[in-house]
Amino acid sequence: MRCKCNLETTEAIIKLLDKFKVPFRCSECSGIYYPYRALNGVVFIWGKPVETITAGGIHIPEISKDQFKTSYGIVLTAGKGCENTKTKEYTECELTPGDVVIYDKNVPWKMQVEASDGKFYEVALMNMFDVSAIVEDYEG
Ligand SMILES: [Zn+2]
Known about the structure:
mainly beta; 10 Kd Chaperonin, Protein Cpn10, Chain O; two-stranded antiparallel sheet; binds zinc ion
């Protein structure tokens, strides 16, 4: 039987959620528990907090951070798919909660969402076509 988050949670997902400091967590399994279920082609993404110091100890100034057009994040919930506005064909959404993805950080809308700790956090939402890739075996 699955718990209230109704998602499959593995040790690897829990490690990722800790690494990304995701506040939307299931109280039973520590996996993702997000209060909304996305529909159609909508994807909600928790962006990886921007690190100003690299692994080599180099400080990245604010201005150069803005030059990166893409961002890493974790999928919190994703719809099942939608019509491609150009081809008019229905496209299934390949994203599932817990996927680490690369997305266009200039596109997404932001939304304040309440987590289980009672605080509000900024979450990015976008169309699935704004997600450019799933990162396989994210080591981070
Ligand atoms: Zn759970």
